[in-house]
Amino acid sequence: MKKILLCAILMCGLHAGIRAQQITPFREGERAVFLGNSITDGGHYHSYVWLYYMTRFPYMHLEVFNAGIGGDTAADMYKRLDDDVFNRQPTTLLVTFGMNDTGYFEYNGPDAAAFGEKKYRECLENYRKIEARLKTLKDVHIVLIGSSPYDETAEIKDNTPFKNKNAVMKRVVEFQRESARENGWEFLDFNDPMVEITLREQAADPGFTLSGGDRIHPENDGHMVMAYLILKAQGFAGKEVAAMEIDAAKGSVLEARNCTIENLQRNRRELSFDYLAEALPYPLDTLPRGWGAKRPQANAARLVPFVEEMNREMLCVKGLKGDYALYIDEEKIGEWSARELAEGINLATMDNTPQYQQALQVMFLNEYRWEIERQFRDFAWMEFGFLQPRGLLYADNRKAVEAIDAEKEKDGWVMGHRGNYSQLMHEAVRNARIGEMKHLIEEIYKINKPQVHRISLRQL
Q1: How many helices (H) and strands (E) are present in the chain, helices listed first?
Q2: Does residue 88 register a pLDDT over 90?
Q3: Quick one: 19 and 85 in the same domain?
Q4: Torsion angle defined by CA atoms of residues 265, 267, 270 and 274, in that order, rounded to the nearest 10 degrees
Q5: Is residue 204 part of a domain?
């Protein structure tokens, strides 16, 4: 209990920092496109948000698209709006930029202030081009997102920070906020809340960072923090997976929220009932995923109150005496005292329940989908980042390959993407991979429907 109270105290500032933010939740049939740079391209935050909808709203069908490309500035994003973003027919378009726009090494040079001002002005000018195009869209919900921060304060060996880079990034965030206000769009800031968490954690561990070892790219836990900020801004704090409250002494159901309870039976030593929830618990991945990842998504549970606010599947049983074993579908889940059961236990934190295991299948299928989509984003980098400036966008022929091969020994990015491009340049291969993703999504929406489970409490 003391640990929970301490966590609440530490996080109260974070609550205050995002309480006023609000963005519209996704709806049935939504096509949500996340436009960004490498943080979006190689990151998980959009996939984690979709996983929330897959498990919390299993009967709501929507699609989430990654439209990030590594190294992109607002100028680069503007050039690919038609061919890589608008062609996806978004109903909601979430736009973030600023990390690459504001530059890097020059902040430690002699003209840092002038450089920062120059990059800020360039970014604003390039964004105005994007803004003008966004204004022409009809029936598309626009959300501007302030970039996750560049971490200047972490103590990282052999990595000297670029001083005051994040201050320039925050100026970019402010013109995004103002643009959203002027155009009647919605706005969400990643920067301030993530800096707040970072400084809080660095008070105990100076080497802590949400922004990865390069101070730029968040790890999986950082991306889960970003997903949490989106979901909180969408109004999901306080929305439970389900909640059951039972009076064992009277053999009655006191409350069943987002679930149904039937066939309640009570004898001297056992209480049992049928339980059907309207949602699945959210599975937090305990393994690092993605290129170079060292930290898993689940680490975010100690950084933000996602579990306490958005992942509660509560079982509360009053009127018992002694200690009890909990069984679900005749599988033993654990043991609790009557006092603990009266206070309530959170089934969503128990990975051995059948409903959590069902949710894990959804998570793994979604992760498999994410891996395929990432290959398409690497392909998009080659198309827009390398071939488009050479007049070879979508050439996908021998001339394009020769242009790549002429540069691959001098450019590590080109070398790294060459193999993937050589496969996806072929339409039949692209169609096959797209078919795989469609199949995975179909499977997810087949297996994510909650099932009836028999819950039993047996006195020890």
Answers
A1: 14, 14
A2: yes
A3: yes
A4: 0
A5: yes
